[in-house]
Specification:
Elements: H1 2-6, E1 17-21, H2 25-31, H3 36-57, E2 61-68, H4 76-99, E3 103-107, H5 115-128, E4 135-142, H6 144-157, H7 167-172, E5 184-187, E6 206-209, H8 219-230
Parallel strand pairs: 1-2, 1-5, 2-4, 3-4, 5-6
The protein binds 3-methylbut-3-enyl trihydrogen diphosphate (2 copies) and magnesium ion (MG).
Length: about 240
């Protein structure tokens, strides 16, 4: 799968792998005079809607950026609230996603994650391991730089000779070792930055930014992003 996805110049009108930076929960809440955590609750609820829309659009892999390694730097009350919301959602939503044939994967570190949430994530991954529908990669406690540091450490531990290290090998040491690179990276809430998301894997991805905050991002917005992707000319450095 990995090699196939990296064939240069390969184009398809429908992106096979879409990655979303789910941003703007806080602003969504603020606009409604609600606490930020209400925005995070609405954001987590929206994942289900977009999973269904991806399946309908023929997308076979979706990666969602849910919590970055830098998000630990937010106030403790917000971090704790987010952990509780994710734990609650993973217990509530996993069954439904499993019934729909979705395969759930975790991309990121497990350190610092509360034990009950670690267990909930592991249970979701185990339960859905053999599903053949959409693959949903949950980028949680994820940071692109941390991922590269972790890969370098493991390469050293495995005693790989410098001459043997090439791009394919580095890719195989990332959390996303067996996943195709994202074709399309969508960011909601109007920012135009990666914020440490898939910095290696998205080297040749197409980018799409929408002003809509994540909780409001719906099926039509996904279609607009996919349509924009279909009009792009991917060149991979060639003519
Ligand atoms: C994205 O929404 C969710 C996380 C980063 C956990 P934000 O919380 O960043 O929302 P804004 O950017 O403050 O509006
Ligand atoms: C990126 O959003 C992380 C997630 C969506 C999980 P942030 O809100 O943390 O990014 P910055 O701080 O605006 O760059
Ligand atoms: Mg933000």
């Amino acid at each position: 799968m990995v090699t196939e996805a990296r064939i240069e110049g390969e184009t398809s009108l429908v992106p096979r792998h879409v990655a979303i930076i789910m941003d703007g929960n806080g602003r969504w809440a603020q606009k409604r005079h609600l606490p930020r955590l209400a925005g995070h609750r609405a954001g987590v609820r929206n994942i289900h809607r977009i999973v269904r829309a991806c399946v309908d659009a023929g997308i076979f892999m979706l990666t969602v950026y849910a919590f970055s390694t830098e998000n630990w730097g937010r106030p403790e009350s917000e971090v704790n609230g987010l952990m509780a919301i994710f734990a609650d959602a993973s217990e509530r939503e996993t069954r439904q996603l499993h019934a729909n044939g979705v395969r759930i994967r975790h991309v990121g570190r497990m350190d610092r994650v509360p034990r009950h949430l670690q267990q909930a994530i592991q249970t979701a991954v185990e339960l859905t391991r053999n599903n053949s529908g959409l693959t949903l990669n949950f980028a949680f406690n994820y940071g692109g730089r941390a991922e590269i540091v972790d890969a370098m450490k493991r390469i050293m531990v495995d005693g790989i000779a410098p001459d043997l290290i090439d791009e394919d090998m580095v890719s195989r040491y990332l959390y996303t070792a067996d996943l195709p690179d994202p074709d399309l990276v969508i960011r909601t809430a109007g920012e135009m930055r990666l914020s440490n998301f898939l910095i290696w894997q998205a080297a040749y991805s197409e980018y799409y930014s929408t002003p809509k905050p994540w909780p409001d991002f719906d099926e039509e917005d996904l279609h607009a992003a996919v349509e924009s992707y279909a009009s792009r000319h991917r060149k991979f450095g060639k003519l």
